[in-house]
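Table 4 source record.
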Amino acid sequence: MTFTFRPLDPLKDAELLHAWVTHAKAAFWMMQDAKLEDVERAYMEIAADEHHHAYLGLRDGEPVFLMEKYDPAHRELVGLYEPLPGDVGMHFLTPPTDTPVHGFTRSVITAVMAFLFEDPATARVVVEPDVSNTAVHALNAAVGFVPEREIDKPEKRALLSFCTRERFEKAVERA
């Protein structure tokens, strides 16, 4: 599967995002009760933040997933670990579907990682999913993430994990 990325437009894309982030499948996104205005506001804040960026992943020009990239030295993980130069934080969300495609989410995370590593300044990707999100832990492992430890964030107990460029490339070669 081939995907392209475009910066998220908080106003234009809010309705689509609202449907995605409030769905039961997106429970780990923690926006279940968000109103449309809440989603617009959250993504307007991201759009205005030099350390946090949101993108839509497109397939054949249609939005099929959400990806966020952030600087963990300034957002999300400040004070929870010692960031290294070249660390990039990442979140991704695939929307609910009535017609699941086998391997879709794995293709998405692989495309997200390739997109992040296109930047030569990116040395490793950092994620902090909820410790109980076993599905994403398996996906993370499949693309080369190695868990380091559990950490307490204000909103959740998270599994801090890292993936270097080399581990990602080896994982993709094996796939």
